[in-house]
Amino acid sequence: MLPILEIGPLVVPVPAILLLLGLWLGLSLAERHAMRFGISNQYLYNLVFVALISGLVGARLAYVLRYPQAFLSSPFSIISPNPGLLDPWGFGLGALIGGLSYGQRKHLPFWQTLDALTPLLAVLAVTLGLSHLASGAAFGLPTELPWGIELWGASRHPSQIYETLAAIAILVAVWPGRGLIRSAQPGVYFLSFVALSAGAHLFLEAFRGDSSVMAGGFRQAQILAWVILALALWTLARKRAEPPAQTQ
Amino acid sequence: MKPTKPSLWVVFSLFILAVGAGWILLSRTGPDTTTDGKIPAPRTGFLAPQFTLYNQQGQPVRLSDLRGRPVLINFWASWCTPCQAEMPAMQKVYQDYQDQGLEILAVNTTYQDDPQAVASFVQEHSLSFPILLDTDATAAGQYQVRALPTSFFVDADGIIRDVVVGGPMAEALLRIRVEQLIGRQAPLQETP
User: Fold this and answer.
1) Model pTM?
2) Within 13 Å of residue A109, how many CA atoms lie on the same side as its CB?
3) Nearest CA-CA distance, residue A43 and chain B, Å
4) What long-range pairs does B87-93 form, CB within 8 A, spacing at least 24?
5) What is the pLDDT of residue B35?
6) Which B residues, 100 through 159, put their C-beta within 8 Å of a C-beta on chain A?
């Protein structure tokens, strides 16, 4: 665990740096292979940039709408850089709206764009696992297995390492041009990544010690992963039934 | 297009989904998985580690004595600029929520600070919440404080609900987190 790195007077938050590194590496990889999917790398870069900015705006706006009284008491907090005042659902919605409107304005084909974004998502998944390892978040259940790690007062499953290894395996499987997933059908590449990630999440969540638990002891994240897996497999089945797409 | 391919895919998909559903059923868990009976650790969802520190008047203050009230534990130093910047907001929030049971324990990392500078800082900012002196890094060690300021929002049951590393915290963030803590506690009882 290395949440903070002290370099002289500088205090560097390692998990955030890892995510930024993932964004940079993933975007570089995605840009390099964007033309494979018929997307200009400049459009792809702009799309990610617009989605990030609109995501951040959405995240702060959602927080302001949820707690208007707190912001009325201190209006300057609206422009505060505190990440604690960002709503993750607001970020997702903002990024989606921003990304979709940019894509529509530039007439970007939906499935090909998602395919082009897949390497970025796959690299980000690896760095997300590493950032969990650095911060001690997404920790595992207590275990007596010899590979358990001492964390938060117990020997625990190294769930962050499981997560990182699974993400690396998926990245290798979807590596553009050299991975196992190759299909001319737009969307198959992205949907395969989603199905693999949802499957890995469904399996590995069982070893997590911080799951949100629903009635009956069911883990919320597993149910969500199962639904996403089902949707991805169903859409893949429909894609497989479609006639092969023309190469662009 | 051959009709066998999609149907094979459908069978494969159904098999995967059935295995997934079985795994979800097998890996069901109890509601206390996170803390496993409330293990003390400086992490959201865990029991706040207990400590006893002395305030500026030389009186001992025990965290365990504050059970039943929401507590904000803030680690700070007088030379730390973000700590200085967030103190006025903390004082404001303390004044607004003190009657609802809020307690703020401002733990000064005295082992790396000057007690005289601490005293003049407190006087200068008219801070009315308890200032605790961590002279030998006991509390900072228990809470694994690696950067200043670091704040722990502890609910009435003594469980850490949020950790904010770095600062300064915006006043809105403080208000929201404190209101979330107050929302979790039972209504305060009148003491006879």
Assistant:
1) 0.86
2) 15
3) 34
4) B87/B125, B87/B127, B88/B125, B89/A74, B89/B168, B89/B169, B89/B170, B89/B171, B89/B174, B90/B127, B90/B129, B90/B169, B90/B174, B91/B125, B91/B126, B91/B127, B91/B128, B91/B129, B92/B171, B93/B171, B93/B174, B93/B175, B93/B178
5) 60
6) 146-147
| Residue to test with chain B: of A160, A213, A231, most B Cβ within 10 A | A213
Any A CB within 8 A of B21 CB = yes
Tens digits of residue pLDDT in A217-233: 899 999 999 999 999 99
Q: Confirm whether B83 is a catalytic residue.
A: yes
Contact A191, A232 (CB under 8 A): yes
Closest Cβ–Cβ partner in B30, B164, B171 for A77: B171
Number of neighbours of residue A225 by Cβ within 10 angstroms: 22
DSSP type of residue B155: -
Ranges of chain B whose pLDDT falls below 70: 1-6, 31-38, 184-192
Pick the catalytic residue from B53, B83, B87, B106: B83
